[in-house]
Specification:
nine-stranded mixed beta sheet; SUF_FeS_clus_asmbl_SufBD_sf
């Protein structure tokens, strides 16, 4: 064939099976890295959730359709805090709590929804709860919600830590709820912030949450998730290590009883040089139908030279009839790192530990409780706030007292 008559037929997207994804915004190329997922604050930009999407395939989506697709009550709600419980009767110095309008410039500073429940909450909240922290002295703040009720709700919280500030913020959740929400956490330069989210909902509660954190230069965030109560709790923390020297320690503790679904999808994005992350989630499961899901994504971007990262998930199965899904993922786009790794393990009691304790006269039931308590207490002990640590240890004892080994 002559050169003049030569033709080239370009393959079409359809020939390779490429078509728009049902989760919205997919286009003609597959998502190659975690950071390329579609994002939007508008719920209408996402297709209806079917349970076949990657972000929903391990979740009982039929049980919370009202939170992913329905109208939501986004009005402000009652909260309790310790700000006026200081010894002198005054507010805690350097902390203010207020409701701000959707137009506030701080809203959206930490992240953008990647799935429909988060976008639905963003589309419906009327005002955001703002926790503003200043001052270099250490301080503790507790915010408690107990009266959300059984109607489908949306909420939005912003925690802003000014440069060089220090604080521990505890977000306590209890009572009835059908809630989807977003929590934004923004750390300025050299800020040191601990955020603890405690879920002790009533048995029928459903709670879907996305936490977005942006950690600035030489700032350190300790983010702790404790999920004990509720029918379905799905709390997904995302952390952007945005500037040099940023550091995150992401910790999680969960105890799933019969019929409970406790889920965490953790994402750490190293987007700056010389950043550090440590992810440790631990859970225990007991009872028929107890279910936990942990997905850990760590992305080390091409600018993140000198990164030091490690993630791990450990699950302890106490009875038959439980299921623990654990999926660690690690993406590395630069070869110049200090270190990176991941680990996952799910199993029953260590027979050698039980034998050691029983050989010293400890009854088997008590030996089992000691092993589980030691396994989970590693997370509790890193909170750094003795009153909360003591209360959570008591809650774990109550959970263990109901354990019936298989």
């Amino acid at each position: 064939m002559s050169a003049a008559s030569t033709s080239t037929v370009m393959p079409t997207a359809e020939q390779h099976g490429l078509k728009k994804h049902s989760d919205g915004g997919w286009g003609l190329v597959p998502v190659q890295t975690r950071s390329e997922r579609f994002k939007s604050v508008d719920v209408n930009d996402f297709e209806a959730v079917t349970g076949r999407e990657a972000v929903w395939k391990l979740s009982p989506v039929a049980k919370f359709v009202d939170l992913t697709s329905g109208e939501l009550d986004g009005s402000p709600y009652d909260i309790e805090s310790n700000l006026r419980q200081a010894q002198d009767g005054a507010d805690v110095t350097g902390v203010t709590i207020s409701w701000v309008d959707r137009s506030d410039a701080r809203i959206g500073a930490a992240g953008t929804p990647e799935e429909r429940a988060s976008a639905n909450a963003w589309s419906h909240f009327e005002k955001a709860l703002l926790v503003s922290i200043t001052g270099e002295e250490a301080k503790e703040v507790t915010i408690r919600r107990t009266a959300l009720g059984g109607a489908a709700r949306a909420a939005h919280t912003v925690i802003e830590a000014a440069p060089f500030s220090q604080a521990l913020v505890v977000l306590e959740n209890a009572g009835d709820a059908r809630l989807t929400e977003n929590v934004e956490i923004v750390l300025g330069e050299s800020a040191n912030l601990t955020v603890v989210s405690v879920q002790q909902w009533n048995d029928d509660a459903v709670h879907l949450a996305s936490h977005f954190s942006r950690v600035g230069r030489d700032a350190k965030l300790k983010h702790i998730v404790v999920s004990l109560g509720g029918s379905i709790v799905r709390l997904n923390p995302t952390t952007l290590l945005a500037e040099s020297g940023a550091d995150v320690e992401a910790l999680g503790l969960y105890f799933a009883d019969a019929g409970q679904h406790l889920e965490q999808q953790v994402y750490v994005n190293h987007d700056a040089p010389h950043t550090r992350s440590r992810v440790t989630y631990k859970g225990a499961l007991q009872g028929e139908g107890a279910r936990s899901v942990w997905i850990g994504d760590v992305l080390i971007g091409n600018k993140a030279v000198g990164t030091d990262s490690y993630e791990q998930n450990r699950n302890l199965v106490l009875t038959d009839g439980t299921r623990a899904d654990s999926v660690p993922n690690l993406e590395i786009e630069t070869g110049d790192i200090a270190g990176a790794g991941h680990a996952s393990a799910t199993g029953r009691f260590d027979d050698e530990q039980l034998f050691y304790l029983q050989a010293r006269g400890i009854p088997e039931s008590e030996a089992r409780r000691l092993v589980v308590r030691g396994f989970l207490s590693e997370i509790v002990q890193q909170i750094g706030f003795a009153p909360l640590e003591e209360r959570l240890q008591g809650e774990l004892e109550a959970e263990l007292s109901r354990t019936r080994p298989s």
